[in-house]
Amino acid sequence: MNATPPTPAPRADDWRIDRDRAVTLFGPAANDWPIEIVEETGSTNADLMARLKALPHRTNALARPLVRVAYLQTAGRGRRGRSWVAQPGDALLFSLACVIPRPIEGLAGLSLAVGSALVDGLRTLPVSAPGQIALKWPNDVLLEGDKLVGILVETAWSTPDATAVVIGIGTNVRGADALAAKVEALNADPAAQQAAPVPGAAPTALSRVWPGANLTDVLAAELNALEDALARFGANGFASFQARWNACHAYAGREIALYEQGAELMRGIAVGVDENGQLLVDTPNGRESVTTGDVSLRLAGGGA
């Protein structure tokens, strides 16, 4: 891969992805992936799910991962159906469709592996505080304790040898102040509070630690990291990511509280994750493991 060209200074009227620059930044494998970029769609995850469902159910059904980027998603969503709030140009919103050569029971920890890859990819960018890009179990990437990236993995079909999945990724690149104001307004809505009684991490954007943050460089960094990660996960599952995930764990050694449908489920000291991606928590009753499901994690006593 050639030396990275300098990042161009962002302009208010030039926020779209620069295809030529992206090509210079992509590694050999990611450069071969079909990448669609559209102005607007309902949900890039839904778009690619429909395509995967139409494919024959076999390991070689998709020659290479397919990426679909949208500047605006009118029905974008995260875990538990929450909406993803973003203005065009402020967030990198894309989905990646692929067929992983593992049965569905072999996909444990996939979203965590993706998060680990994204941290590594984002840390290659010229950010002022790369060590402050960290992981929150199970599906978030944090920047200085605030939410930077959300991940949503959905399954289209599975066979004994392969599973077709769509990985949706939303990265806040610019406009953190405007985004925080919108989320605050949504949270002030009594109906929204009832739907999500446990507050999530405050949103932030990459421009907080990189004034030149732009969609092009972020897309290249994330896809280059995902190319290797998907191949490794297909071969070895989450076990090969466990140590790296734990090394980037934002809450390691801190007291956390886990909630299910707004009610506190467990409280203890976050240890890390096991080889299946389950969260390990030291509680007064001993060490317990937590699967993902409909569970929210927060720092005890408030916080993200």
Automatic annotation (TrEMBL):
Q: Which reaction does it catalyse?
A: biotin + L-lysyl-[protein] + ATP = N(6)-biotinyl-L-lysyl-[protein] + AMP + diphosphate + H(+)
Q: Which GO terms describe its molecular function?
A: ATP binding; biotin--[biotin carboxyl-carrier protein] ligase activity
| A cellular component annotation (GO) from this entry | cytoplasm
BPL/LPL catalytic domain location, by residue? 30-234
For this protein, what is the EC number?
6.3.4.15
Question: Which UniProt keywords are given for this protein, alphabetically ordered?
Answer: ATP-binding, Biotin, Ligase, Nucleotide-binding
Query: Do the record's keywords include Ligase?
Result: yes
| Phosphoprotein found in the keyword field | no
Pfam families listed in its UniProt record: BPL_C, BPL_LplA_LipB
Give the InterPro entries listed for this entry: aa-tRNA-synth_II/BPL/LPL, Biotin_CoA_COase_ligase, BPL_C, BPL_LPL_catalytic, Transcriptional_repressor_C
Query: Can you say what this protein is called?
Result: biotin--[biotin carboxyl-carrier protein] ligase
